[in-house]
Amino acid sequence: xxxxxxxxxxxxxxxxxxxxxxxxxxxxxxxxxxxxxxxxxxxxxxxxxxxxxxxxxxxxxxxxxxxxxxxxxxxxxxxxxxxxxxxxxxxxxxxxxxxxxxxxxxxxxxxxxxxxxxxxxxxxxxxxxxxxxxxxxxxxxxxxxxxxxxxxxxxxxxxxxxxxxxxxxxxxxxxxxxxxxxxxxxxxxxxxxxxxxxxxxxxxxxxxxxxxxxxxxxxxxxxxxx
Length: 226
What we know:
This protein is α/β, with parallel strands linked by helices. The chain has one domain (5-225): Rossmann fold, CATH 3.40.50. The chain contains 5 helices and 11 strands, in the order βαββαβαββββαβββα. The strands form 2 sheets. A 9-stranded mixed beta sheet has the order 2-1-3-4-11-10-9-6-7, with helices on both faces.
């Protein structure tokens, strides 16, 4: 069975090519690159909203991208039950358009973070089904507004419904942080109620080749392909 996917490019996206290569290398299927001004998307199994700084992060990260022409098609795709993955800025966009709960605010130390971090699976879904419950993944982050925040009611909803996909944790580095950016309950990634949408701050597309510091990002796509 063929697996078809697409990556959406916004002005300021800088991880779209990484995401395209990630999909081409790991899915062996057709991968489309869609410009944000398009008004239609061919039928695909997975859409990635990539990392970067869409529209220069003016106003608020992801706010301007949420008004792009392509957004109604992305929502339509997600409502059909097909997979949607928002990485870093893509996660911010997913919260801006209301497909995921919460918001991404400025890091606790008010500084940009570009480093490897460690995450583990919290609740199982189709994006992390191949990850063991106690397995720690080493995946890089690159963000200034990666601090996940939500109200108490939404946090309870995320926990009660098993929607927290990943949480930051201690890793193999002696100076590794359990929570690198101040996210509430160490949250690094969440899903929607149907669990076909995942938003995560770490970059799996930067952790799958031999020259990367880790190949742990492969497991996201391997889980979906299964």
